[in-house]
Amino acid sequence: MSDSPTLLMHQGQRQVFESPARFRVLVTGRRWGKTELDKAESAKEFGAPGLVWYIAPTYDMARDLMWRPMRSWVSPSWLAAEPNETRMELETIWGCRFACKSAEHPDRLRGRGVRKVICDEWQDWKDGLQVLEEVLMPTLLTTDGSLLITGTPKSFNHLHKAYTRGGDPKYPDWASWQFRTIDAPHIQRKAHELERMRAQMDPRAFRQEYEASFESIAGRAYYAFERRHNVVPITLDPHHPACIGFDFNSHPATAVIWQRVRDEARVWREVWIEHAGGEATRASATRARELLAEAGWRGPTRIYGDPAGVSANTTGPSDHAVVREVFRHAEWMIPRQAPHVRDKMEAVNTRCLTADGRRHLFVDPSCEHLMNDLEQVTVPMLTSTAEKRRYPDLTHISDAMAYGIHQEWPPVVRGGVSVGHAAWL
After folding, report:
1. Would you say 34 and 150 are in contact if contact means Cβ atoms under 8 Å apart?
2. For the chain, which domains are there?
3. CA dist 219 → 49, 123, 128, 212 (Å)
4. pLDDT one-digit tens code per residue, 265-296
5. Residue 130 and residue 64: Cα distance in Å, rounded?
6. pTM of the model
């Protein structure tokens, strides 16, 4: 098997590859080459009998990350029969039965004696630790099989728990490694590209995605916002559209008026109306229109907001219908699906501060409610309905802004994880 990917490994990959540990955990930054290592690990097993699994978070990821690339380098002379493309399974002439699996339905992974399991993008597995201990570890018991877990940090979730087992005396069969993206030789040759990502991501996201750092997200949702740096007087620029963002909440009714000026988001005014009842959306839209009229605005407008407003009943008609009525000639920028909470947070934080120390979001001092939101909203408020109800005045106006920020500067999603705002990899 001289053509296998094992010949292409760099030093860090080979360090993990040659380790005798039965259970290994590899944590790396993006594009370090962990999936290439997974391919080498698979090829290593082709020469011995037994069942080998590569498991990704979804079937599509398993097909894209492993099956299709592997089929391009597996020699037909290695195969005992034609591979099953639908099930993503093959058998080698040496008796190895290899299959690409998905973690979407863990019960389908039960009851099989597996010689080796390779878990990729493990940070994105749902209930990853439970699946590992209740489903996968028993499959390795009868075969005395081995395990390789690879992933990129996602806060302190199950990947971190597995990573800490390496070096822990209670887990003598475990070993762990942590490598930054820049540690890979092929990335060192294009370090300028990594610096470009640093200029397009917020500091915490960059540390997590490219420096393999486990970062807490339990505190402030918009941690990169600072009044002393992000608050400056804003005037409307006649050369750029006026952007109006809505959250479609009934109490308070909120909206923000901002502009995109090159790579900057400039928030000019906010709308905050209490006790508007069933006319909340009409009230906030009308007030936004009045503010623009008072400023003598004659330029184009764009509308951003929550996609759920297409069927909401804040007013008699849907919220979207009301806004379309108030702003008849505005450009409609609301997508069909709402962004993930984490992506929305990253988009705002990246405008507030990029990892190279620059700021791209500025708020006028008149937007007091928005500034309070950016300083006080926590991650649990955005992810827990019960927590949001405890603070009824928070999250709404920052959401009104965040929908538009995300629409204009959407994070790129790879493997379920946001990794920046320019797809260079």
Report:
1. yes
2. 5-189 (3.40.50.300), 227-418 (3.30.420.40)
3. 49, 20, 23, 20
4. 999 999 999 887 788 999 999 999 999 999 99
5. 25
6. 0.66
